[in-house]
Write a structure and sequence with these properties.
This protein has three domains: 73 residues, no CATH class; 68 residues; 92 residues, no CATH class. Helices cover 17% and strands 38% of the residues. The protein is built from four helices and 14 strands. The strands form two sheets. It has a twelve-stranded antiparallel beta sheet with strand order 1-2-3-4-5-6-7-8-9-10-11-14, with no helix packed on it. Strands 12-13 form a two-stranded antiparallel ribbon. A hairpin with a 2-residue loop joins strand 12 and strand 13. The longest helix is centred in the N-terminal third of the chain and has 16 residues. It is elongated, with a radius of gyration of 26 Å.
Length: 258
């Protein structure tokens, strides 16, 4: 059995994985044990002073270099933002996966007020596309916000296919569906909302492109927008004004892409 096969504890640390999968030079078992102790001190904020003794040519410099590389890689993962110094909203990024995707964050909390904000957790597929977002209110929040789930599906090229908004019982409350031209430009976006127990289209966007060649490579020339769910009085409502003309709109663009 080689050195790398011993010392199982060290192998399960983040630095050991970093050395194996990123650097490509796995730590020996005695190096991994040191790395694990340093990692625990860093991650848990213990601030320990660790003294290491190794024989000559045992890999102290290599271990030090790999730990420094891991720390530099780790510190680019933002963990907290607070825009002001007094009572203000903050965002904290609590956990990341090994591909630097945020897996949990807390948003809309207000310092120093307790029990504010919500926690969002994220799930990704094998190619780092977001597939599920779960929003839960921080325990004790008043009023208690309802749980929300956002599920995403994708076409093979990676383009978003749909987004479902679900309640705590996994019942779909809203659904957005995208279609595309062959080059990946968005063709339509339909949004369906739950009305009377059924999902009905409430918004529809249709894009047009200047495409004389028929190869979907032209510039966008027009967006047509339709709000298919009238507001009070049978009209679409915008900033408190009822006006039937607000139910549809067309935005035109310079076909030269200006």
């Amino acid at each position: 059995m080689g050195d790398e096969g011993r010392g199982g504890q060290g192998w399960y640390g983040e630095i050991a994985r970093f050395s194996r999968e990123v650097v490509g030079r796995p730590l020996r078992w005695y190096q991994a044990e040191v790395a694990e102790a340093i990692e625990r001190s860093v991650v848990e904020g213990l601030g320990l002073t660790i003294t290491v003794q190794m024989a000559r040519q045992a890999g102290k410099t290599e271990l030090s270099a790999q730990i420094e590389a891991w720390v530099l890689d780790r510190i680019r993962r933002l963990t907290y933002v607070r825009p002001g110094e007094s009572q203000t909203r903050f965002t904290s990024w609590d956990t990341y996966d090994r591909n630097d995707n945020v897996t949990q964050q807390e948003i809309d909390g207000i310092e120093p007020t307790a029990n504010t904000g919500k926690v969002q957790t994220y799930t990704y597929d094998d190619v780092d596309r977001l597939t599920l977002q779960l929003d839960k209110a921080v325990a004790g929040t008043t009023p208690q916000l309802p749980d929300r789930k956002y599920r995403f599906t994708y076409f093979d090229p990676g383009w978003v296919n749909s987004r479902n908004v679900e309640d705590a019982a996994a019942a779909v409350q809203m659904r957005a569906i995208w279609t595309y031209f062959l080059n990946g430009q968005v063709k339509t976006l339909d949004t369906k909302g739950k009305t009377g127990g059924s999902l009905l289209t409430v918004e529809r966007h249709v894009a047009s492109y200047d495409d004389p060649s028929g190869k979907y490579v032209g510039f966008r020339t027009k967006d047509q927008f339709g709000l298919l769910s009238p507001g009070p009085g049978g009209y679409c409502t915008y900033v408190g004004t009822n006006d039937a003309s607000l139910c549809t709109a067309t935005a035109a663009y310079d076909p030269r892409g200006g």
